[in-house]
Amino acid sequence: MRPRRTFQRDTAMRWATGWVGDRNRTIYTLLIILALLFPAIADVLTGGEGNHLVGTAADAGVFVLLAIGLNVVVGFAGLLDLGYAAFFAIGAYTYGMFASGQLLGSPLHHEFHIPFWLMLIVGMLVAAGFGIILGAPTLRLRGDYLAIVTLGFGEIVPLVVQYLGPGSPVGNWTAGVNGIAAIDPPKLPFFVAGPWVGAPIQVVKNFDFTNPLAYPMDFYLLMLVLVAVCVVLANNLYNSRIGRAWMAVREDEVAAAASGINTVAMKLMAFAIGASFAGLAGSYYGAKLSLVSADNFHFIVSVTILIMVVLGGMGNIPGVIVGALLIYVTQFFVLTNLPDWVTGLASLVGLSGLNQSHGDWVGLHDEVQRLNYLIFGLILVVVMVLRPQGLFPSRIREQELEKGIAEESVFDLREEQP
Amino acid sequence: MGTWLFLVAVVLILAVLLTPKAVGNFPLFLQNLIYGVADGSIYALIALGYTMVYGIIELINFAHGDVFTLGAFLSMPLIGAFGLAEGKSTGVGVWLLLLLIAVIVMTINGGINVVIERVAYRPLRNAPRLAPLITAVGVSFILEGIMYLWRGASNVHYPDVLPGARFAVIGSAFISIKDIVVILTAIILVILLSLFISRSKLGKAMRATAQDREAAQLMGIDINRTISATFFIGAVLAGAGGMIFGLYFNSVRFDLGFEAGLLAFTAAVFGGIGNLQGAALGGLFIGLVQVFSNAYFVSALTDAWIFAILILVLVFRPTGLLGMQVPEK
After folding, report:
1. What sign has the CA pseudo-torsion B144, B148, B154, B157?
2. Percentage of residues in chain A with pLDDT exceeding 70?
3. CA distance A116 to A219
4. Model confidence at B325, in pLDDT bands (50, 70, 90)?
5. Do residues A65 and A325 make contact, with C-beta atoms less than 8 angstroms apart?
6. How far apart are CA A381 and CA A386, in angstroms?
7. Considering only CB atoms, which chain A residues are within 8 Å of B127?
8. Mind listing the domains of chain B with CATH numbers?
9. SS3 A193
10. Which of A89-93, A231-235, A368-372, B241-245 has the lowest mean pLDDT?
11. Which sign, positive or negative, has the C-alpha torsion B94, B97, B103, B108?
């Protein structure tokens, strides 16, 4: 006789085992814990001077947003976008132009200071609009031709932005090579400060985000909210009818079209939605840095975001978040600080002679700095060769891959038959 | 038919844009034309490698631009080692030595690219398509890192060993020996390559593999060897391109291949990726657009023009100028 189980116990068991066994839920849980504890960890690590690290984490969040957005295009819909930074630039410049004194010198002769919260939405819409303008004529192209079109677009946008500065025939819109500076920070009518921003509990009226009381914790908290919203949005999209249509288009466009999916509309939608995430990230970036410059949006940024998505595990949202964080930490923390660490280590073990430069040797610090490119390249190659599917690929993709291998082994068996 | 109409349309538009400039100051126009063809020849040599690799394994080989730079960096010490010095070396001996250096550089470059393929791309041949793209970016960083370690971050002077003589064509327009060397090298290599691809057995294997890898395998073609050969030849052409770039411009830098590679890839797509003549034509076209835009149209937007033209071409001819319409696999 089968042992009886009460209904509640059964579901509770399933829920608990599901939670433990499901890798994605584990990653989410760990990420949430890390995000909430990070300010404290940063303080402990730096002995009470954690603000700088928290600010860096808020900057890393920009890349998390970008990776989530690019994952919609590349991971969900299977469209290779090599110019994603262009939409990031469009978002950042939209906010920069309409939330600073910049347009006073433009043919409009009027400066705008539209609130950040409104511009978040406007930035998304503008970026999505550009996504549609670029995508509509080009999404009929086959896979890699689309990639080169996006690459071209990604190169055109920073050049045009830079060109539309002082002295351009149509007036100074973007401040050219200097970039737009003194961009408004986000503002709130009031803000409740407290231990969560490392301050005594008090109500601050007309709070702005550069307020030394909370900076950069307020940006960090805002970033957590933005990331959470984007994760929910992207997740819902993935599980919706649109998400399934994207998957169908990604796996077999002809079959998808034959099943009644409007493939061009679906691809366009992926493109526009992906672009809107970048627009959002751009607005935040402009507000946090208070400066946007065309130099920060070149091809290498697009490639970096793509690396984050592919290395993290295309199509899987927690995977790409981890990918974005790992690459960001590697590039902007480990590799930037490595020369100092190595120098410190050398002094510690009594090899401080290496730290001075003599002859061809430029000193340990600079020698290690020179290795940056090489180390980063090696990491990319080694990780991808060891885990071609990315660190945490989506379950569905993994199964597809395993199935692909199974098909080949059938082929091998047939070969071995006498 | 459509191809020709399109080509005629492109040429007509260019003619309309450039005729006033040509009429205004013909010698200057001619001078720019010569520069453009010379630059375009170098782009063509890089673009061929892109197009061959893409044609055979559908990989956008981002490291290819750096393989080109490697050609320049490898030839630099050899020029000194073979006793060639600036302004001193004359006579037939120089040409023979340069040819010898070129052969050595091309071989080493080809070998390195074969190793790169073996280590970074072959293990991923059945992996998701974007995985090798990322390793290609990684290899690009590695190559740039090595060249950075080797010669530092700033511009490096490349020995100026070619004769500086130049001949007047019309008025103030000159063609120098360097121009002629660059253009002739490219033409000879392109002809040799097309002969190799169309006549030799290995070339036939390459075409078969590009068309259908599995079918080719069933016909007894050694796929791995064929793909290695493709990478070898691509790097041979890029190495030659790097060396003549150095001889022509006399200044190289470790990250030179980044932008050059991007433009050469554009050239390959422009001509129809996978198509050799298309890549050569595309390279030439990009070189000309670049030089003319720098001279006559807003030079700050040169790259923007190039990519805008590319996007327009792809909108109207989705497979590039000479690309074949192939069904989705």
Report:
1. negative
2. 89
3. 13
4. low
5. no
6. 8
7. 388-389
8. 40-316 (1.10.3470)
9. strand
10. A368-372
11. negative
Q: Which residue is it, tokens 């401080």?
A: A352
**Residues of chain B found within 8 Å of residue A314, distances taken between Cβ atoms:** 128, 130
Helix (H, G, I), strand (E, B) or coil at A115: coil
Give the residue from B264, B223, B218, B219 showing the smallest Cα distance to B241: B264
Length of chain A: 418
Distance of CA A414 to the CA centre of its chain: 46
> What residues contact B265, with CB distance under 8 A and at least 6 apart?
A148, B47, B50, B60, B64, B65
pLDDT at A400 over 70: no
Query: Token pair 């100051």 is at which residue?
Result: B25
Chain B contacts in chain A segment 345-384 (CB below 8 A): 370-381, 384
Q: What is the DSSP letter of B242?
A: H
A388 vs B: CB within 8 A: yes
CB contact under 8 A, A142 and B303: no
Angle, CA of A298, A302 and A305, to the nearest 5°: 140
- Measure CB to CB from residue A148 to each of B128, B269, B304 and give the nearest one: B269
Quick one: B72 exposed, middle or buried, by C-beta within 10 A (0-12, 13-18, 19+)? Answer: buried
Cβ neighbours, 10 Å, residue B237 = 29
A-B CB pairs within 8 A amount to: 145
- Asked whether the predicted pLDDT for residue A229 surpasses 90, the reply is yes
Rounded to two decimals, the ipTM of the complex is: 0.90
Burial class (CB in 10 A: 0-12, 13-18, 19+), A37: exposed
Tokens of B36: 């453009």
In angstroms, the CA A298 to CA A89 distance is 9
Cβ <8 Å between A310 and B149: no
* pTM (predicted TM-score): 0.90
